Amino acid sequence: MFGLKRRPPPPTLSSFAVDMAHAMLQARATKALAKAPAAAVETATHVRRTGSNRQDAWLLHGAAALLGGSVFADSGVEHYRGDFQNRAMFLPLIVSACSIAASLHGATTRKHGSHRMRDAAYAAAGLTGIVGTGFHLYNVTKEPGGLSWLNLFYSAPIGAPAALSLSGMMGFMAERVREAPAGTEPQLLGLRTSRVLAALTGLGLFGTVGEAGLLHFRGAFHNPAMLLPVTMPPVAAALMLEAAVSPPRKRHRWSRIWLAVTAILGVGGVGFHAYGVSRAMGGWKNWRQNVVDGPPLPAPPSFAGLALGGLAALRLIERHRR
Amino acid sequence: MNERYPGYDVLDKRFTQSWNEKTREVVDKRLSVHPGPRFFTAEEWPVVQAICGRILPQPSDRPPVPLPAYVDLKLHEDRQEGYRYAGVPEEREAWRRGIAALQAEASDRHRGSFADLPAAEQDALLHAMQRDELKNPAWGDMPPALFFSKRVIPDITNAYYAHPTAWSEIGFGGPASPRGYVRMDFNKRDPWEAAEAHPGGEEKARRENRRIV
Amino acid sequence: MSEIDEGPRATGNQAPDVFKVGAWVPMRQFREDEAVDFVIVGTGAGGGTLACRLAEKGFSVVAMDAGAYYRPLEDFASDEEEQSKLYWTDQRLVDGDNPLKMGANNSGKAVGGSTVHYAMVSLRFRPEWFKARSTLGYGVDWPLDWREMWGYYAQAERALTISGPVTYPWGPKRPRYPYRPHELNAVGKVLARGCEAMGYKWSPTPLATVSAPHGESPPCVYRGFCRIGCSTNAKQSALTVWLPRALKAGAEIRDLAMVGRIETDARGLATGVHYHRNGQWRFQRAKNVVVAGYAIETPRLLLASANERFPDGLANSSGAVGRYLMTQSNQGVWGQMDDEVRWNKGPPSLAMTEHWNYEDRKDFFGGYCWMSQGPLPQEWASVQTGSRGLWGEELRREMELYNHQVGVKMVGEMLPVETNRVTLADEVDQYGLRVARVTYSWTDNDKALIAHALDQMEQNLLAGGARKTFRQEDDTNHLNGTARMGDDPRTSVVNADCRSWDIPNLWVCDGSVFPTVGGVNPSLTIQAIALRTADRIETLAKRGEL
User: Fold this and answer.
1) Tell me, what's the pLDDT at A248?
2) Domain range for residue C471?
């Protein structure tokens, strides 16, 4: 009845995530039905009407929340290291928190359609990311040596604020998907949202790969596992770019698999980084140094966030192929 | 007592990640130094105390670093520097002779013990030693300036700046292992480093320094 | 001064595991009456490296060190006073016009030698220095070719996992350093800014401390006590790199073993060494003896081993043993900033410039580099008292500016002079061995180079934003020469293979073999030479020419 039943999910981990999302939506709808029959009928109708869109939006809100969470924790630690010397260094914390809040609201609210406050939060995230990139670039170039490897390694990370923009854009897409009439695909600047989203995910993944690559190069790839985030996600990124431009297919099987791999890496990366912290002098006992100086625990989940966004893109493409 | 780093005491970090067991052991030992004298004689002792008091005068509002005790300990253990200028006797003999010569100079000039001279007279004698201007035969072939720069100064200043009180005074982070430092740039301090009082900010620095762990 | 009280640790078929508290690694042991292939005197940059490579090539090796076998994690304190246990503080006499300061900094007495407390600066020679006489017109030529050395440098850099810049701005192409450079601290940025204002290139310093985990070494935590021993094992030294490998390959290391004399037989060959351990004199037989005691102890041992057949000391038919001692000028310029600098954070020499090593438009011979500094309190006090003559209230006030201080120090080339030398004094040490007398005077060229460098460094600090600068005009550091290598037995002690001309089974492998000293820290070159020597010994052995 939610459309998914018509299409049995393939045995991949990404579809597992979709199943989970689906089950949660279903459970909530059922609960609502039991509680208040009249309202429930309305809700059920509404869900039927916009169900698929809602799941897509749910995924996109998830993507926005994960990316926002990663930025929140990462910029929190890094800007704490920088003593919040500039007031603007609080900005990504506040804005990413708003983006997370908007996403949680969007993912849990029963109301369909977009919301002005959420849109505002996402727009702020998108803009803050751009401004932040400028700040970071300035920070790098004012150091002796300018745009050098040394400053790319140790000054403000140029790529990091982009994750906040990505969070905002994922949320923005979620809003556009939500407000589109059931069974239709929203358009963005005359382009199909699904394609724009696929391209965005692909580029975002490439950017994140670049960031991970830079920092893992700084770590001299001392552990072979450090090669994973620069070898696996690029495949997913390329497949997403391919999906953005090629004729739609019924099922982007390989793209989904690689997105799943990317998502797993994003979650598993936290574990690897936690191991990295334990290997530093003093290990976890010396957490006040090693959590700040060691491999960043909150960084890898941005891969997972982007993978969710990519999944949403694929679902949209698959459903709205004409 | 500590104007630049008010309330900062490097010993507050003794049981944090900044100190390893070995460091605790050697600093504890240093803090419980034998009061002396074991090497110096009862006659030499007040002179050593007077010299230490002039080379590194200490504020009266805090427990002093027992400098004479450290000089005495070094000589008692006969710890060597690893080299000696040809013509300068080794550590123990140099101190013995140097003190005797200084007493002779004090007696020549002021008819009293170096230890009993007013601070200004003591300083004048020490300056003369530094400039190699002392000529009493008691110096023998040991140049007073070399005794001053190679024995008196290093033995006393090394003792002082090996003491936690001195580390706190200059805002030095002190022992750092296993925990080192994170913030390397200008005007950046880790929460476990001494906070410096900027004009008008003494209370703020004091508060920060109380939180150092 | 807590020496290791329990006596030698490397006994009973085990040696300390330097990476774990209280742990041991197995160690092969050799009998004293059985001649081992090589007995090596000293386990520092030269001896430690050679012991490792020879053992890995299958030779039987016993390496002796007069110092203790420390486990950094449990034996090293964050304390200057305590860590002076790492220095060679046995008595030495110094004289000449510019007597050398010994003890702290320039020599070590511990298994691992001076590399246990070196500043980890790992630079290659400028290629021309290997032919200083023919290409630059001073000193003498080395019997080595820089292209061959380039390969050994790379090998040493890999073994030591050097953390260095992605591209090094001076000299011929070299492979990328194994690990990335360390972050600059504030005082490093002062040097960098100053260089940019002067139009000079600068670089993050290639350092032998890891910027990321490696093996059992955690990444450097920037505690800044590097020069009194690294208590985290981030430092890559003979103690943590070469000797663990040597043990694994079957070498034996004897700690607290002071070699006092090399024995030779009627044929004029070395037969082994007399050494003092556990309170008694003992004798280890060996087919080859390698002396690797650094530029003071090496000539001291060779001279002290004089006998009827070699009345002037071993390997000394040229008379060059103990001569051509070269230190390196280590003058500095210091200044203050309004900013908080806290220069003790991080390794002491994070940024550097080799500008005047590669620029020949100057009116003196030789080159120099300079590096940012971050002395600990005792050392900083010694600069204030030594260079400015401060004491009393004034000293205490100046010391309070510790966290605002900045500074740079040079490593400058000094010319080889026959009269700068190591001889034996009449007085004896605790083992009853005659102590070394070290005689040193600067040449006019040395003085010109130092004056030039002081001006340059002062400009650098001022351009970098410092004020109230002052000069430290009297410091020196590394020691080289005294058993120099060459092509001519009449003027050198050893050949290019570090093999003595006079006694074919007596070798010298440390900084003593340097014919000239160059304007960079010598440890990487010492290790590269040791790597080459090991390869040459292997080749010679295969040819039956040992």
Assistant:
1) 83
2) 14-542
